[in-house]
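Figure S7 source data.
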Amino acid sequence: MLPPTTQVDQKSAPEIEWRRPLLFAFPAAALAFLIGLLFDVPSGQGTLYDQISYPLALMLLLGFSVALWRRPILINTTVTGLVFAMSALFLGKLVFILFLMPQTQHVQLEMTETFFWIPALQVLSFFIPHLRSARNASIIFFALFSLVTLVYLIKAAFDGTSQGIVYALLELNLANVVLFSVTNRFIGFKEKYVRSASEYDTMRQLLGTDLLTGLPNRQRLDEVIKSATAEQRPFALLFIDLDGFKLINDTLGHIVGDLALQEAARRLQHPSDPHLFAARLSGDEFIVLAFTEPTDAQTTAKALLSSLSHPILAEGHIVSLTASIGISLYPEDASDTQELIQHADAAMYTVKSYGKNGVRRYEKATDSAIERLKQVERALTQAMTNGELSVMYQPICSLQDGVVRKLETLLRWTHPTLGSISATEFIPIAENNGQIIPLGTWALRAACHQARRWNDITGLPIIVSVNVSPLQFAQANFVDVVREALQEADLPASSLEIELTEGAVMRRIDMVKAYLRELQALGVKIAIDDFGTGYSSLAYLRDLPINCIKIDQSFIRDLSTPRRAPQFALALIEAVIGIADTLDLQVVAEGIETRKQLDMLRDLGCDLGQGYYLSRPLAEDAALEAFVAPALFAPRAMQSPLN
Ligand code: C2E
Ligand code: MG
Ligand code: MG
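Tokens for the predicted magnesium ion complex:
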């Protein structure tokens, strides 16, 4: 069960601190009036006004004390009421002694007594935060006291009242002004300081704390790991990922999801165990550091799994959580935060692939492949924005005369620390997580711009072929993306060829047919890449508007590898060339690496070829040189006998 949420009244919290001193101050002031009433008034010193006002003040103070004692939350009302009532009483007394009493030395004493209490009220109204109305009351009364004083001074100037009273009045008023302004300034300063100190605290809190669960966040985790590694204190890092959490969010909603995360966080946090430190990494990923014996890490992880597995009741739904936990050890497995997390993450991933709900210690031999995959996947998210991608162009030339007819666009990625990462490694990752869509669009636009530039320089029509992954091709706006790329580069559609694999073509054939017809209508050419490795149905070659078949390099390799049944490769290539002839399609042989392969393919009647023997993929300037070169290979008569 989730603990009930506790409501905290934010506003009342700071004032409540004043309750205790006021419960002491109010009765003390009441006692002062009681003494005045019992001894001062009967002695004949007290005025007529005192006889009425002292009992009133006494009752007010006692009444407010009782109110404050019984209802602590009434502190603001109590103080404001008291400031108002007592200020009014003192204002009345000042008017009484100055204008209604005989002007004797006795007046000075009464005045001093009155002016003694006024600052006490002012200070009271200013000390407690948020007491705006009490503050305003005290300012208004301060102005009224000054006004009464002024009227008295003007009157005294005309009727020649005792000078002693005038001087005393001036002194007391000036002392009050000093106190008033200093208090005002001091309180302002104090409030500002308190505010900035508490803002600083809140900021720190926010920076180090995850808002949803209240657990320390990644930043705080880094600090803790850093200080542990600085002290060389061994620990186990437990990477915890809730199983199927997305399903909870999707089926029961985000509120239930959030409650489940909060409860999971509560269970991972062991306030009673000082050896454990739990933090939330992101989403449904948590990290627990266990500062225990390395051998205990598995036990700790299993205990956490078991504590997570108790059902949670959230918003009327019963949610059962399981998790996958990967463990890495400091210092055995790694010495820096990043690596420790990566290792534990990879081990966690292996747990997931074995069926979830389990614990696993990182093992280099098994987990490093997954780790590399995750590392590449993470780095790939930044690759485009960090400008780490580029494109190379591999010439495709005629096997008859060696002249370059097309250039295939191939993506290249160089990461600052991982170095150059092969397209065969990162393209499948990007296809798996959908990043291929922006990457592919980027490559397509780059190729169109480049073709336009080459066209401007050479004045020759040029064809760039661009690889398009099945996922990219399946996007509803794919044809629009192609159209926009062409328009943006001002490139004729006849200069662009799209390379699709058989897999992409055979998926949702009706949709594919419609797209291909639209592309054909635009004037864009279509090539089937890696032909022979995918689906065996050949009917699509007849039914779809395809211009070119690219025979996969594995068959070309087999041509010259005696152990790998060259007859089959030869038969397949012959058959493909035959079909292509009938259907009037172009044929490209991919991966030509030797002169022998080149000659065999030419003899078989293959139109075009591509491969390291002819040219490796080239940067734009070199690709331009290859494009304008008379031929990429020497005619047969000039071949070296060694090849
Ligand atoms: P692909 O489209 O079949 O491209 C040909 C691949 O074979 C390229 O590898 C090229 O460098 C390589 N190659 C060319 N000639 C030879 C040769 O003689 N011998 C050998 N062993 N290899 C040769 P690369 O650049 O590593 O690309 C691998 C695959 O990644 C490509 O295969 C393509 O499927 C994919 N790819 C590359 N760029 C893109 C892109 O922009 N978008 C998409 N969707 N896929 C791309
Ligand atoms: Mg290709
Ligand atoms: Mg290919």
